[in-house]
Design brief:
Layout lengths: L5 H6 L3 H14 L13 H17 L26 E4 L4 E5 L13 E4 L1 H5 L6 E3 L9 E2 L4 E4 L1 E2 L6 E4 L5 E3 L3 E6 L6 H9 L2 H6 L2 E2 L4 E2 L2 H6 L1 E4 L2 H44 L4 H12 L2 H4 L3 H16 L13 H17 L26 E4 L4 E7 L13 E3 L14 E3 L4 H4 L9 E4 L10 E3 L13 E6 L5 H9 L1 H10 L12 H5 L2 E4 L2 H43 L1
Helix pairs in contact: 2-8, 2-17, 8-9, 8-11, 11-14, 11-17
């Protein structure tokens, strides 16, 4: 049943990871391989452990152990196969902690010191020490069985078999000396690692760095199968884990190939030079949309393609009756001159026209290239960052996360200590365009339209505000700023990308190239984009529902098999 449903398990969200967990669960429950009545039962192995302990105690090599608590019925999560036994981990081994090396004991060469990162990462660098300073109990070699008991839950804890030669063991790792040869080390490793959730639940310490006490480890309840069956289980687990590796690699390969296919086919749309060519190319790939749009990242790519088509004038037809963009720019210029004459804004410094090298694509008839500042009546101006306070006030300053997604999020703010007089020039008005002047390279220059109430928020120092002309569609300007060409412009012109926060200055924001259609066409484009974005949202919702159903099916299958 497990193998016949691998495709469902592997393609569900997080499916391969769940599949690995399921394999370990089935392994320690005795459901992966057949039992053999001829195998020596585990009860005989328990006697061997006791005999080995008694011998070592008599020879003075270990101290007489305190009996571990009997395993209660509530600690037994499932019924054991015939010939198996329950054991506590501490009853099968002696655990010796590593040496607490000091930095002053580190050397550039010598005996490698094994730290937790050396267990988790094969390429992690070693510290070294003087071999003469390392006691035998802190030495390991290939084949040593280790348990990491400190670090980050989910990544650091677990059992390991060391295979990289002689070394010294650092603290926070136990060297485990197995008693009576009753465990195949590889089976013991997978058995312990199948119980990591139990150990993590009992971990102590702060957020991030935690530890599992020796007592918790010693009390861990494990299964003890007959020795030959352990070997058969290990062989089967290794086979299935290799299959998981192949499924994982196949999934990654398919994801890469799918992304390349989406990029190539959607690229044929943006390569269209006229609406007629776009319609022809769209028809050519539309029959493959069920293949293309089967994952969220493909829908994201489609949405970005829609924005590119919008700002290139390919989404809606041009109307020769529309007043041209050049006439629109003259209106905006007259509006600005009026405000300057009235003393409402300062006289701006004219910027040079957009040269051909700055134009990433050709424009339809009636459009014009201009600069972002050409459609704004004021700005760009930086915000301010007053001292935040805990007490709620009427003064709310946006945080960067309020616009990082390219839309305004009103819940992302902090209360600040500022007077009404200080805040006056920083109050946002509905329709203001906000641009992040500082952030990571992926987000610097990201734009969002403020669609909240007037005088409800001020904007921070790492944002700029532009007040757009009433003669232009603010929503169209926003589309142009968040499409690929708009984002690339800000990334190319950001400063401080090496080691410091990337930023764009006022001149860069003001000079951003903007493809400007006639006002009537701006309105048609915005309406069309809104409709297509709603379709994208519906696609995402259906994909989420489909993935949720697939995950529930996989979960039911996992529980049914286990």
């Amino acid at each position: 049943m497990l193998l016949s449903n691998l495709n469902l398990l592997a393609t569900a969200p997080g499916g391969v990871a769940r599949l690995r967990e399921l394999i370990l669960t089935l392994a320690v429950q005795g459901k992966l391989v057949a039992q053999d009545a001829k195998d020596e039962p585990a009860s005989a192995l328990l006697k061997k452990i006791r005999m080995e302990k008694d011998r070592l105690i008599a020879e003075g090599k270990i101290k007489r152990d305190k009996p571990l608590a009997e395993i209660a019925e509530k600690e037994k999560p499932f019924n054991l196969p015939r010939g198996w036994e329950w054991v506590r981990l501490g009853g099968t081994m002696e655990m010796l902690n590593g040496k607490p090396f000091k930095p002053t004991e580190w050397l550039p060469a010598g005996l490698p010191i094994v730290r937790i990162q050396n267990l988790n990462k094969a390429n992690a660098p070693f510290n070294y020490c003087d071999p003469a300073l390392v006691a035998e109990k802190n030495r390991i070699d290939s084949g040593s069985f280790l348990i990491s008991w400190s670090g980050t839950p989910g990544t650091s804890f677990g059992a390991f078999i060391w295979q990289r030669g002689a070394a010294a063991l650092n603290q926070h790792i136990f060297k485990c000396e197995l008693l009576g040869n009753v465990f195949v080390p590889e089976f013991l490793k997978l058995s312990i690692n199948s119980q990591l959730n139990v150990l993590i639940a009992q971990a102590q310490g702060g957020v991030g760095l935690q530890h599992v006490t020796k007592g918790v480890l010693e009390s861990l309840v494990l299964v003890l199968p007959p020795l030959p069956e352990q070997s058969r289980i290990v062989t089967r687990v290794e086979e299935l884990m290799r299959l998981c590796d192949a499924l994982e690699a196949k999934g990654q390969l398919e994801a890469t190939q799918h992304a390349q296919l989406v990029t190539t086919l959607l690229g044929t749309l943006t390569d269209s030079e006229t609406p007629a060519q776009l319609a022809d190319n769209w028809h050519r790939i539309a029959t493959h949309f069920d293949l293309l749009l089967d994952r969220p990242e493909a829908v994201d790519a489609l949405e970005q393609t829609i924005l590119q088509l919008a700002v290139r004038g390919l989404l809606v037809p041009q109307d020769p009756q529309d007043e041209s963009a050049s006439a629109l720019l003259k209106k905006i210029r007259a509006e600005k001159d009026k405000f300057i004459a009235e003393g409402k804004i300062k006289r701006d410094k004219p910027l040079p026209p957009i040269v051909e090298e700055e134009q990433p694509f050709a424009l339809p008839l009636g459009w014009e290239w201009c600069r972002l500042v050409d459609v704004a009546v004021s700005g760009p101006t930086n915000g301010l960052s007053p001292r935040p306070i805990e007490t709620p006030t009427d003064m709310k300053c946006l945080s960067l996360s309020a616009t990082t997604q390219g839309v305004f999020r009103p819940e992302c703010f902090k209360y600040v200590d500022i007077s009404a007089v200080q805040a006056k020039q920083f109050w946002l008005k509905r329709g203001d365009l906000l641009i992040q002047r500082g952030n990571s390279l992926d987000y610097v220059g990201i734009a969002a339209l403020y669609d909240g109430s007037d005088d409800a928020y001020i904007y921070p120092d790492l944002m700029m505000r532009l007040q757009l002309s009433q003669s232009v569609s603010a929503m169209f300007v926003h589309l142009a700023m968040v499409c690929i060409e708009g984002r690339d412009y800000f990334k190319r012109n950001a400063t401080g990308t090496q080691g410091t926060m990337p930023k764009v200055n006022q001149a860069t924001v003001a000079g951003a190239p903007l493809p400007l259609p006639p006002l009537a066409e701006q309105s048609r484009i915005v309406t069309c984009v809104a409709q297509l974005r709603r379709l994208c949202a519906d696609l995402r919702q259906r994909l989420t529902a489909s993935q949720s159903t697939q995950a529930h099916l996989a979960e039911a299958l996992v529980q049914g098999v286990a």
